[in-house]
Prior knowledge:
two-stranded antiparallel ribbon, 5 strands
Amino acid sequence: VNNKDTRGTTHADEAAFYYDRATHTLTINGGIQHIVIVVKANVHITAQQATIDALQTIVTGDAEIQGNLTVKKKLTYEGGMEGSGGDGAAATITGNLNILGDAHASGSMLSDGENSNHHSH
């Protein structure tokens, strides 16, 4: 790199590690196949925004999201679902709902404000 503010190294396989002190940018790229980070303590990342751009992302342990979560495509789960509503409803769904199987309720089931638990035809 021909820049007085940039220091780093490029290896024979084109793997590169550079820091630009003018833009405060650390760049790792090139022929790198794997990056392994192993620590005995916690890893903390603070940023305005963090983006993971990968075909697949795997989290092997439990995950906690302390803010809102927006899923832009289909949400699929395999271990069941459980939750609580906090200050509001436990779940609000806008749109149609298809249930393949039975629906069980320990409380009332309402349709337009009317109790439908004991409704018969």
